Amino acid sequence: MIDLLARQSCCLSAQEISERLGESGRSVGLASVYRALELLHELALVQRVDLGDGNTRYEPIQPGGEHHHHAVCDRCGRVTAFEDRSLETALERLAGRLHHSISAHEVVIHGNCERCSERA
Amino acid sequence: MIDLLARQSCCLSAQEISERLGESGRSVGLASVYRALELLHELALVQRVDLGDGNTRYEPIQPGGEHHHHAVCDRCGRVTAFEDRSLETALERLAGRLHHSISAHEVVIHGNCERCSERA
DNA sequence: GCGGTAGTGAGATCGATTCTCAAATAATGG
DNA sequence: CCATTATTTGAGAATCGATCTCACTACCGC
Ligand SMILES: [Mn+2]
Ligand SMILES: [Mn+2]
Ligand SMILES: [Zn+2]
Ligand SMILES: [Zn+2]
Fold first, then answer.
1. pTM of the predicted protein model
2. Residue A46 vs residues A38, A65, B45: alpha-carbon distances, Å
3. Residues B26, B76 within the same domain
4. Is the torsion defined by CA of A28, A32, A34, A38 positive or negative?
């Protein structure tokens, strides 16, 4: 499972992880998936991603710190990843000013994806 | 209920809204609270806030556009609101570059609040 | 093999949200 | 006013992701 997650470029739900493992032969129960994810999260190897539909997703944390954020289409649900250096810079600067330690941050953008923007 | 929400400076869960309305005499069922919130959200009067504990919160959208974001203490759960102009600027600039319309954005910071940072 | 320990997952449980529907309330028209 | 129709409410059922339980399995050292 570790490897399956590591191979992902973007986030997956626990359900999806369990299904994919099943498809590829190595079936793993949902309970075990959640257990593993919790552990990986504590070890800072996996980050939780909450996009506001009722499903928590998980994605690997890159050792180098590179990461992206997500734009969600409120019409079709499609999730688009994006990176933005100046956004990250703003967040880094904010860290100093804030009376709050920062172990993670998450930026979620809502709107319509390219495809859904076209058709009225 | 509109007025109760409007009076809030920060987000409340549906549960909290129902409770507070009950305390102040005008009891309103949970179903009705959710109904009203959905409507207010469609009218762009209320914004959903998802902080990653299983509770969706809601807060009024200021007509002027002023708004804040949230830092969550992963130890005690306390929610701290913060504003940051340069973060907003970065998000505004991003809007142009992104192949995705933006109707809302949400920034959530995880870490430890001031109090929890002090005690080891 | 055998007892002990850690890991697994099917199914029970929980809790937030959504759905249903009968009752309450409001609006309409004579 | 009163009867009729339309709208709103909210208690409780249903849903569904996440978590918990616990019998069962796998593994380990002897
Ligand atoms: Mn970032
Ligand atoms: Mn903002
Ligand atoms: Zn779309
Ligand atoms: Zn705290």
1. 0.91
2. 9, 12, 35
3. no
4. negative
| Nearest nucleotide to A54, CA against C1' atoms | D17
Residues of A in Cβ contact (< 8 Å) with B58? none
Question: Could you say which ligand is closest to the alpha carbon of residue A79?
Answer: 3
Query: Average pLDDT for consecutive 10-residue bins of chain A (120 residues)?
Result: 77 95 90 95 94 95 94 93 96 95 96 87
User: Are A103 and B114 a contacting pair at CB < 8 A?
Assistant: no
* Pair (B76, B103) in one structural domain: yes
A-chain CB neighbours of B96 within 8 Å are: none
* Rounded Cα–Cα distance for residues A35 and A40 (Å): 9
Contact B90 A93 (CB under 8 A): no
- Provide the domain count of chain B: 2
Partner residue facing B101 (CB), from A48, A98, A111: A111
CATH of the domain at A99: 3.30.1490.190
Tokens of B13: 């869960």
Q: State how far the Cα of A76 lies from the Cα of A73, in Å rounded to an integer.
A: 6
Domain co-membership, B73 together with B58: no
Structural domain of residue B52, as residue ranges? 1-62
Note whether B83 and B102 are same-domain residues. yes
Identify which ligand lies nearest to the alpha carbon of A82.
1
